[in-house]
C-alpha cells in the first residue's frame, strides 16, 4: 500500500512539473527570438554527443554489472548433463556480448557522424545486394550453429534408454507443495488417480495395482550419486514446473498427463558444501544474515539462523499466492546412504495399514493428542474418547 501511494505521488509530481514547464515556455513567447521548434546546429551537436554519452553509459553499466553481480551465478552444475547446458548458455552469452559491443558502437557512431547539418543533403540510396547478403548470411550461419548445438544438447539430455538401470521417482505437484514417490523394488510406479486420494494416500495411488505395493511416499527427496534418476511428474491442480537449478533441470507438471525428465547427480550434498566457491557463497550469505540479525536483536526479535547449503526442488510457474514457498529439499547421498535411508521408509501400503488400525478399546486414543491444534491461542488436545 505504501509503495502504491509513493508511485501515485511520484506520477502526480511529474505531471505537475511537466505542466509548470509548459507554463514557463508560454511566458517566454516573444522575449526570445530563438525559440523555434526546428533543431539548429547546436541542438544537433548536443544530441550527437548525448549519443556517445549513452553509449558510454551502457558499456560502463554492463562492465559494472559483470563485476558486481557476476558472482551470483549458480557455478558448478551438480548433474552430468549440466556442463552441456552451461556451455550452450556461455556460448550464447559470449556471442550476444560480441555482437552487441560491435553493433552499439556502429549505431551510436553513425548517429553522431550523420547528425543534422544545414549544409548536408540526404543521399538517395535504394539498396545494396552485397551488404544485405552479408548481414543476412552471417546471422543465419551463427543462428543455425546455435540451434543445431541446442538440438544436439536437447536430444542428449531428454533421451532416456528404457532398458538402462534408472531409479524411477514420481514428483507430485499441488498448491503449494511437492510430494515424491519411489517406485520400490520393482522400479515401476503403481497406477494413480485423483479419485483414490484419501487420508494418508495423498497421491491417489491405486492400491489394487500390484506395482503399487512397494511404492514409498516421502516429503524429502533423496537421490543416489552417480545413478540416473528418471522423474515422472504429475500435477493435482494447476500448471507447476519442477525446477532443480543446481542440476540444470526443469520440466512442467501438467494436470492430466505425466511428463518426465532424467538426470544423473554427480556431487553429494556434502561434496557440494565442501567446494571452495560454495563455501565462499555461504560465508557471504551468513555475513549478510549476521548483519541483519544485529538489527533484529536490537528490535527485540529473534536472530536469523545461519544458512547451510541444500539442493532444492522449486516451482517455476506462478501457480498461486504461496508459489514462492513451494519447495522441497533434495539430498544427494552416496549410494550406500541412499539405500539405508530408503530402506527405513515404510511403503505406502504399510502406512495405510497402520493408519487403519482400530484404536485400542481402552479409554484414550493417544494418537489423537499428536494432532493437537492451537486455536484462539489455547492448545486444544483432540483427544478421542471411546
Ligand atoms: Cu507451483
Task: Looking at this protein, list some descriptive labels.
386 residues, alpha+beta, Immunoglobulin-like, five-stranded mixed beta sheet, 9 helices, elongated, disordered C terminus, binds copper (II) ion
Give your account of this protein's structure.
This protein has helices at 2-28, 41-69, 82-113, 129-158, 269-274, 276-298, 335-344, 348-356, 367-370; strands at residues 166-174, 177-182, 216-218, 221-224, 228-235, 240-244, 249-253, 259-263, 311-315, 327-333, 364-365, 373-375, 378-380, 384-385. Among the domains are: 39-118; 166-267 and 314-355, Cupredoxins -  blue copper proteins (Immunoglobulin-like), CATH 2.60.40.420. The strands form 4 sheets. The protein has a 5-stranded mixed β-sheet with strand order 3-2-1-5-8, with no helix packed on it. Strands 4-10-9-6-7 form a 5-stranded mixed β-sheet. Strands 11-14 form a two-stranded antiparallel ribbon. With 386 residues, the chain is of the alpha+beta class. The protein is elongated, with a radius of gyration of 31 Å. The chain binds copper (II) ion.
The hetero compounds bound to this protein are: copper (II) ion
Give helix % range.
Answer: 40-55%
Number of strands: 14
SS field, number of helical segments: 9
In CATH, the topology of the domain at 166-267 and 314-355 is named Immunoglobulin-like
Q: What's the order of the H and E elements? A: HHHHEEEEEEEEHHEEHHEHEEE
The CATH H-level superfamily of the domain at 166-267 and 314-355 is: Cupredoxins -  blue copper proteins
Secondary-structure class = alpha+beta
Oligomer: single chain
Determine the N-to-C terminus distance. Answer: 52 Å
Low-confidence stretches: 362-386
* Rg for CA atoms: 31 Å
Q: In CATH terms, what is the architecture of the domain at 166-267 and 314-355?
A: Sandwich
Percentage of residues in DSSP E strands: 15-25%
What is the CATH domain class of the domain at 166-267 and 314-355?
Answer: Mainly Beta
General form: elongated
Could you give a short account of the major beta sheet? Answer: 5 strands, mixed
Amino acid at each position: 500500500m505504501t509503495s502504491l501511494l509513493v508511485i501515485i505521488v511520484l506520477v502526480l509530481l511529474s505531471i505537475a512539473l511537466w505542466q509548470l514547464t509548459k507554463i514557463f515556455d508560454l511566458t517566454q513567447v516573444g522575449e526570445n527570438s530563438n525559440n523555434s521548434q526546428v533543431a539548429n546546429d547546436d541542438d544537433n551537436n548536443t544530441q550527437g554527443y548525448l549519443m556517445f554519452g549513452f553509449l558510454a553509459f551502457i558499456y560502463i553499466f554492463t562492465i559494472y554489472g559483470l563485476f558486481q553481480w557476476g558472482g551470483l551465478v549458480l557455478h558448478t552444475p551438480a548433474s552430468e548433463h549440466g556442463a552441456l547446458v552451461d556451455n550452450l548458455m556461455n556460448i550464447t552469452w559470449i556471442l550476444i556480448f560480441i555482437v552487441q559491443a560491435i553493433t552499439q558502437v556502429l549505431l551510436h557512431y553513425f548517429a553522431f557522424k550523420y547528425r543534422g547539418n544545414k549544409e548536408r543533403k540526404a543521399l538517395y540510396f535504394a539498396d545494396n545486394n552485397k551488404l544485405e547478403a552479408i548481414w543476412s548470411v552471417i546471422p543465419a550461419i551463427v543462428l543455425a550453429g546455435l540451434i543445431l548445438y541446442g538440438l544436439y544438447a536437447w536430444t542428449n539430455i531428454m533421451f532416456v534408454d528404457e532398458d538402462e538401470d534408472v531409479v524411477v521417482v514420481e514428483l507430485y505437484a499441488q498448491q503449494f507443495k511437492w510430494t515424491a514417490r519411489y517406485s520400490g523394488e520393482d522400479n515401476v510406479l503403481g497406477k494413480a488417480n485423483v479419485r483414490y486420494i484419501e487420508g494418508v494416500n495423498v497421491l491417489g495411488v491405486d492400491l489394487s495395482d500390484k506395482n503399487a505395493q512397494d511404492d514409498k511416499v516421502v516429503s524429502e527427496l533423496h537421490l543416489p550419486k552417480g545413478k540416473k534418476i528418471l522423474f515422472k511428474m504429475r500435477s493435482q491442480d494447476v500448471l507447476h514446473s519442477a525446477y532443480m537449478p543446481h542440476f540444470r533441470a526443469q520440466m512442467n507438471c501438467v494436470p492430466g498427463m505425466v511428463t518426465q525428465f532424467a538426470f544423473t547427480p554427480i556431487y553429494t550434498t556434502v561434496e557440494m558444501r565442501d567446494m571452495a566457491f560454495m563455501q565462499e557463497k555461504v560465508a557471504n550469505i551468513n555475513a549478510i544474515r549476521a548483519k541483519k540479525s544485529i538489527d533484529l536483536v536490537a528490535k527485540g526479535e529473534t536472530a536469523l539462523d545461519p544458512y547451510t547449503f541444500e539442493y532444492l526442488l522449486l516451482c517455476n510457474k506462478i501457480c498461486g499466492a504461496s508459489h514462492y514457498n513451494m519447495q522441497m529439499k533434495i539430498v544427494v547421498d552416496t549410494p550406500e546412504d541412499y539405500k539405508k535411508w530408503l530402506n527405513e521408509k515404510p511403503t505406502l501400503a504399510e502406512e495405510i495399514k497402520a493408519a487403519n488400525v482400530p484404536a485400542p478399546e481402552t479409554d484414550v486414543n493417544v494418537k489423537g493428542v499428536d494432532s493437537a491444534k492451537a486455536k484462539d491461542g489455547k492448545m486444544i488436545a483432540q483427544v478421542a474418547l471411546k
